[in-house]
Amino acid sequence: MTASDREPTASPVGPVDSSRVPRYAGPATFARLPRVDEVGGTADVAVVGVPFDTGVSYRPGARFGGNAIREASRLLRPYNPAQDAAPFALAQVADAGDIAANPFNINEAVETVQAAADDLLDSGSRLMTLGGDHTIALPLLRSVARKHGPVALLHFDAHLDTWDTYFGAEYTHGTPFRRAVEEGILDTAALSHVGTRGPLYGKQDLDDDAKMGFGIVTSADVMRRGVDEITDQLRQRIGDRPLYISIDIDVLDPAHAPGTGTPEAGGLTSRELLEIVRGLAGCHLVSADVVEVAPAYDHAEITAVAASHTAYELTTIMARQVAASRTA
Ligand SMILES: N=C(N)NCCCC(=O)O
Ligand SMILES: [Zn+2]
Ligand SMILES: [Zn+2]
Q1: Can you tell me which residues bind Mn(2+) (predicted)?
Q2: Which ligand gives the minimal distance to the CA of 195?
Q3: Which of 16, 118, 136, 184 is in Cβ range 3.0-4.6 Å of 32 for a Cys bridge?
Q4: Which of these CATH numbers, 1.10.10.10, 3.40.800.10, 3.30.300.30, 2.40.50.140, describes 42-327?
């Protein structure tokens, strides 16, 4: 079963009405949406948390990111003017809870994440995953490739995350995309990093990355060339391929996202990130993640709010696609 042949929900169950129940009341689901078990066990777009951060190389704490994003998402409203869409009315979006990954065994955790993602995709959902550290992009990509074949990847991040190993470990938050290329689960004609910046281990890092097929739009490119030109370039590269978007919140400048594990100066503003993401509406987005929110380093939920709005835009793109595939 695919997302488009999942039984259409006559009228999706939407979020709790914040004019009737104060938005700070009750347990937090993403955007105050129902849980998947409250809407019959499946959703067109499943928002799922992965509280896992055993793959980090510096500050820990992204295991708490998903719930911080859920808390910050209480203020989201049901109509998205930037995309002229009411995403939670167009498709059933629901919170699928958390994937219980083993914090003491990375290999097992990677398998657990993939198995849970496989189940959700097999039930007809597109995934909006809330990390967790960036290690989890690998099992998520394995899962989407199992369903769609090799996918285009748009990777927003300060870092390349195509390094080889850390301390001999293959599965870390700095290595998921090299593993994915090695495994043949990415469409190497359509791989882009956006927001790249900061010191590297050596020039070879860039050579290796280019050999894997990645194009780079640096953080400075976004500033110099502007959001519209960059978005056009990305859309051309992606075409109508099945697309996975992975957003490491450290793509944002530390002023816009202090709550993350490996911050780098000189990043995107949250406005730039949101505008680029909105500009990707209409692409064949099969699933997405927002990762690396580490709330212990956050202030006034700056990072979690930015992450919640980013996930909202991605969710809107997917909900619009679900609706469009039904009328097609
Ligand atoms: N994926 C993130 N956030 N960071 C990767 C940094 C790897 C390093 O410490 O070199
Ligand atoms: Zn990063
Ligand atoms: Zn990353």
Answers
A1: 134, 157, 159, 161, 248, 250
A2: 2
A3: 16
A4: 3.40.800.10
